[in-house]
Each structure stands twice: as structure tokens, then as C-alpha cells.
Amino acid sequence: MSFLERLNLGYGFRQYFRIDAALDDERRDNVFRIRREVHCEELKHEPERRDRCQIDEYDTHSMHCLLRQANHPHKLVGCTRLVLPNPADPAAPLPFERTCAATLDRTIIDTSRLPRERMAEISRLAVRGIYRRRKGEHRSTLTIRDEDFGTKTQPRFPYIPVGLYMGAISLAAHKNIDMLFMLTEPLLADHFARLGVNIRRIGSPISNGSTRVPSVIDVQSVIRSMRFMMKPLWRTVDREIESSIPPLSPQH
Prior knowledge:
By secondary structure, this protein is α+β, with helices and mostly antiparallel strands. The protein has a single domain (about 5-245), classed as Gcn5-related N-acetyltransferase (GNAT) (Aminopeptidase, 3-Layer(aba) Sandwich). The chain has 8 helices and 8 strands, in the order H-H-E-H-E-E-H-E-H-E-H-E-E-E-H-H. Strands 1, 2, 3, 4, 5, 6, 7 and 8 form an 8-stranded mixed β-sheet that branches. A hairpin with a 6-residue loop joins strand 2 and strand 3.
């Protein structure tokens, strides 16, 4: 990590990556291409479909983030999505509500009592194998570990996973989402706490190939309480997401 990157993570991010809201057909196709490559071909989590797409029922009411190389925008890095309530059936459960139906702790948060239009879920984070460089990780999903932050003499920063999560948080803020749910690996909350992001566990772990915990963040609280070193990165990601969202027409 260069001296300038240490001072400004936003500058460092811009040197390597570009993140957009994938709202047009071309960018969405790139998102589905990454997901197929990672989840079906590399990790073998899911069978390949005949149409070679990796989509599900939630994609019809989701927004997606697409991460690419800054200087080579045709080189795809990763993606994630924000699952919004189904406008055709607002009471329909989000993915985590189905997956964790038996393990959610309703005394912490009862999703049935929340305004559905103010909640969403981050899911389907996928990073291409070439960017998962650690030994053995090309066959596992991407997470954040202690070594991703380097050492005192050789610091570095996990731009890819943090950038994708920030992109989803930015989308949520632009959609006026208050509560953002996710299934996270147990150590992820601890690492995000180092960055000033409070992830609250709301149930017992589940295991489906890997152990994950249902969790929630308060979108505006995360933005307000972000650590000083993280704010330039947040502003960069948020600005790029905003610039990729078409302005509303005058009648809206």
C-alpha cells in the first residue's frame, strides 16, 4: 500500500477499481456472468442451467453492484446485490427470512413488525477466482481475514469485499432503506467492527457448505459512525454508485 493510499483509501480504490449500479441489461448480464462463473463453475455451489444464467426469483426485484478494474472496465472483478421487497407481494419474505426461519431470534428483531419498504438484504456477493489470490481461496467464497490488513510495516486493505459491501450500502441509502440484513461468516462482524461498522447478530448460525450468521446493520448509523479513515473510501464508492443511477424524470 502506497503512502497516499494509507492517507486516503478513496484514492487507493480509484486507482484499481470502478463500482457501478448495474441497472441496464449489459451490466446485469455481466453480474449474472460473474455469479455463474463463481457459484456454478468454480465453487460448484449450484448446478448450471441450460441458459447458462445464474439468476433466481429475487433478481426481478433486486438492484446489483458491479465491480470492475478502473483502467480496464471490460475486466470484471465481482458483484453483489440488494434484494428489495417484492412490489407484487410486499409481505413476501426476503431470502434470509426463509433460510433462517428456524434460527432467527425474534426477541432481538422481529422482521414481521418492520415496515417492509424500509428493509432489504445484501446477498450473492461473488468475486472471480483470479481476484481471490490467497492459497486455497480460489475454491471458497471471499471473506475478510486478519492478513488482509497487512502488517504495521506493510499495510494493505481489502478493497474488493469492503468496496462491494459499501456499494450495497450506498444503494440501500439511495432507496431509503433503514435496515439492511445479510448472512455473514462469523468473523466478518469482528473485522467490520474494526472499520467502524456495527453488524448485529440476530440469530443462531446456519450451515450450508459454510457457517453463516443472520445479521443486520442500520444504514444511516453505519454512515454516520464510519471511522475517519474509511470516510474517503465511502465517499468515493457512494459518488460512483450515485453517478451510475439515472436521475428521476421530472414527473417523479
